[in-house]
Every structure is written in structure tokens, then in C-alpha cells.
TrEMBL record:
<dbReference type="InterPro" id="IPR028098">
    <property type="entry name" value="Glyco_trans_4-like_N"/>
</dbReference>
<protein>
    <submittedName>
        <fullName>Glycosyltransferase involved in cell wall biosynthesis</fullName>
    </submittedName>
</protein>
<dbReference type="Pfam" id="PF13439">
    <property type="entry name" value="Glyco_transf_4"/>
</dbReference>
<feature type="domain" description="Glycosyltransferase subfamily 4-like N-terminal">
    <location>
        <begin position="16"/>
        <end position="186"/>
    </location>
</feature>
<dbReference type="Pfam" id="PF00534">
    <property type="entry name" value="Glycos_transf_1"/>
</dbReference>
<feature type="domain" description="Glycosyl transferase family 1">
    <location>
        <begin position="231"/>
        <end position="332"/>
    </location>
</feature>
<dbReference type="InterPro" id="IPR001296">
    <property type="entry name" value="Glyco_trans_1"/>
</dbReference>
Amino acid sequence: MNRGADIRIMMTTDTVGGVWTYSCALATSLAASGADVTLVTLGPRARVDQRQMLRETSVHLVDTDLALEWQDPEGRNVSDARRVLAKLEARLSPDLVHLNSFREATFAWQAPTVLVAHSCVNSWALACRDTAWLGEPRWRRYSERVAAALDAAQAWVCPSRAFHDDITAIYQPRSRGAVIWNGISPRAPSGRKQDLIFAAGRLWDRAKNIEALAAAAPGLDWPVEVAGPIEARLPADITWLGELPHAALETRLQHAAIFVSPALYEPFGLSVLEAAAAGCALVLSDIPTFRELWRGAALFVDPSDSEALHRALADLCADEMGRAKLQRAAYEQSLTYSLTRMTSAYLGLYQDLIASRRTSAAASQIEVRA
């Protein structure tokens, strides 16, 4: 019997960054297990290429055009969000609501809720050492809503132990929360790797630290390509690809011999996992999340030291045996973070919460009759 049979799940998501990739993978896997899953977008609507990721699945997609919480720190859109999502819950009658952002956990849901913390403004600012603006009233209100959301949800989850510790330290939630690593379907690296260094990240996002790679690129023997939204003048030593559809990104990863991420902040890093699964050698910033997930399977570099990053990349380009060893290690480590494992962990959590809610409801009925 499928573990997800007869479970109706309403899952919120957004289309900016890795949350969409995560949501599509998990929703598709849950649906394959027998669950009835509706994916509800907040923020910009999914592009045509993003919708293709749900093609040939039974996942339902609903767009709401509601603001993302980090784009609405004043909370002007909260009333609309509460009204729209309450109507959706009434129509869908889910057994469980899976939230991929914070503020919605404070709404008056009928079903039990799971909140997954993918990132937050405060932890981003701390990692980027850019915290002066957090004292503004609108960001204080944001922080209060995040803390309230963590306490309101029946369960909350982080994708890494390092990020769980950050959330706990910043917001001090009443419950301990859980850690469920992200996962993807296993892939077999195909074909011979090309002499290519590849990176992916939003160029406007300071946390991705792409400027460190731009400073490290001059003088490297191999070309450097970066995929991601472009909103600035770009150095000539890197080939800037702009935002790629997910399928095109996967193809680039299959070709690239080296994947580099000098990120200052990364609660998990799905692009790193996809690169490892494609058999890339990993050169990563020395931050707690990457150490947790990729210890023994990557080269780690101080993200503030572009000269050290240049040396690490240059040495790896010249070391065929060392590169092959790292590629194998990264691929083998990627198998730890499987979609099957992630889906099973979430289903177990969902079923526990649904069973607890039904037990509580039954107990309440007995008390009323008594």
C-alpha cells in the first residue's frame, strides 16, 4: 500500500530560487506515493519552463498572486493572504497544510500545519554582516511574525542542522523543530566532462557572493560560466548565461567538471546537490552548512578570500586525478540526499500530525458527550 494514499496535501511555494525546485520534487514524489497534492504559488507566477517541471504529474497548481513575505515586511498583504488561503483550504479540504514560508503559519488553519524554513531575512543579514537595517520597524514586525509562525505551526522543519541552529538561536521557538535534508532523484553522470567551471546564483543576492568568483576568475586556464538572473554590469572574465530553465541547468551541470559556490549564506544549497549528482567536483565556501553536508566530498575555501578561491580552482583544473577523486566523492555523497528519503521523512511527519489531530478531535467529542 502506498504510504501517501488518501492524504490530501495543500502546499504553498514560491517561484524565486530553490524553493520551487524543492516543492516540485517533493510534491511530485508525494503524488507518486498516492497523495493528492495541490501546489499553491505565492509571489510571481510560475514561468512556462517552471510549469514544465510538473508536466506528466498529478500535482495540481494554483496561482494566487499574493506577495512573498520578505517582499512585504510591513504586512500590507497579510489580510488578503489570510482571506485567499482560507477560501482555498475550504475548497480543497486538505488533511494537512505544508507551508514553505513563515507568515502563513499564523493563519487560522483547520488542518494541521508543517512549516519548512528555507531561509529568513535575519539569518541572511547575519551571514552577510549587513544587519544595521534590521532595527527598522517594518523588519522588527517581520521578525515578530516569523517567531509567531514557528510557535503556531504544529511542526517546523529545516533542511540542515546548521540552519536549524541558526533559526533556534534567532527566534527561540517553543518547540525543537526537526531536520529533514533536501533530496533529489538519483542521476547517473553522462559522458566525459568538459574543461569548464560552473556556478549558479542570483547575481543581485549578496549571499551568493558571486563577486568573489568574478574576482577569482581572471587568469584561470578554464572558462567560467555563471547561470542566474542578471541585473548589473558584468566582468568580462566570466560567461554570464542569465536565468536558465531547470532542464538547461541540469545539462550544463552534466558537462561541467567543476562546480563552485562561494556563498556566504546557504541554508542547504540545492544547486550544489544537483552539481554533485551530475558528477562535478565541488569547490565550496567554508560555511557550517556546506561542512555539514559535504565534509570529505568537496574543497572548502574562505568565501572572503578571492585569491584562495583562484588558487583552489587553478590547482583543481591542473590536477586530473584529484579532480576525478572529488567528482566520485561528491557523486557518492549526493546519494545520501535522495528524494525517496526526504519524501519518507515528510510522510512520516504528516501522518503523525494527522493522527494526533484525529485523536484530539475524537477525545473532544467524547468530552462533549460526557
